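Hi P.,

Sorry for the delay on this. The queue was packed all week, but I finally got your sequence through. Input first:
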Amino acid sequence: MNAYPMTAIVILLMSVLQMWMAMAVGNRRRSSGVKAPAMTGDPALERAIRVHGNTVEQLAMFLPALLVCAGFVGDYIAAAIGLVWVIGRVWYAIGYQQAANKREWGFLVTFLALAAALLVGGYGVVMALLG
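Then the structure:
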């Protein structure tokens, strides 16, 4: 991964983001009094769980696309796309914690970053095959 230091930094930010979201779930669980393994009973806890779960689901798609993008198109382009994804996820998390209907803009930014990673990475793979 030495050839992709900027992408590596963004991937580390993704791990920090996951830790922040996991801690938010724990904090909401403590403040609500809802004990594990229960997942319902407090709307704020339920939103925190969904934020974390949705982000884990997104990572399963985004991370491979980002790594393909870095490998076939370049470190700085992939890192920029990854940073947009992280910003979108933070926006999504903050909005969703306020109210479920406030998650939409953050989701849109995240979705566009995923689409960019897929398209740019796919372009790089095709160019390598044709090259």
